[in-house]
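Aim 2 progress update. The chain analyzed this quarter is reproduced below.
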Amino acid sequence: MQGTEIGRRLGAPAVIGLSLVLAGLGALMLRQIGVEVGDVIGEGGWPFFVIIPGLILLAAAFVPAPPRGIGFAIGGSIATTVGLILLYQQTTDHWESWAYAWSLLPLAAGLALAVYGFASRNREFTSIGMWLAGFAAVLFVAGFWFFETVFESGRAPLDLGTWWPAILVGVGALIIGKAVVGSSRVDRRE
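Predicted structure tokens:
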């Protein structure tokens, strides 16, 4: 019984440590045959140094018993997403997309939470993750629409000087609606 508990505690760090050992041994073996890792990846492939550790963290998320792996899942999804964004920007030279691409990070965290919750049958994780991912997706779409219009035309897509009070009313109404729906759910539970 005690050995099983020790295995659970050491599971995720052991996976990360083993991954690092294997990566180091692989790089040493490549070096022995005259191949440098940097040459294999190439000048534009540096984002893979962010993507690969993110994928390792994602894999490590399912080693410890749930819910202990949630931190690895969220960290891995964020690191992988950052790497993919950097790869996109490196490939397209579209660095100004950071103006709205940052919203993909909470989207990745929400998706990781939702998928981990689904895989571990934790409805709370799944629900919170889907809400976070949905909210971040709206931020991404709004940012993309706004900033890509600004980048293309040099002007905002709508006159905020005229429309900002209407936007405040709309956001306030959404917040009130969410509060009312949330309080009615609490009332039904009691």
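The helical segments are 2-32, 37-41, 48-60, 70-92, 98-101, 104-119, 123-153, 160-189. The chain is about 80% helix and 0% strand. These observations will guide the mutagenesis experiments scheduled for the next reporting period.
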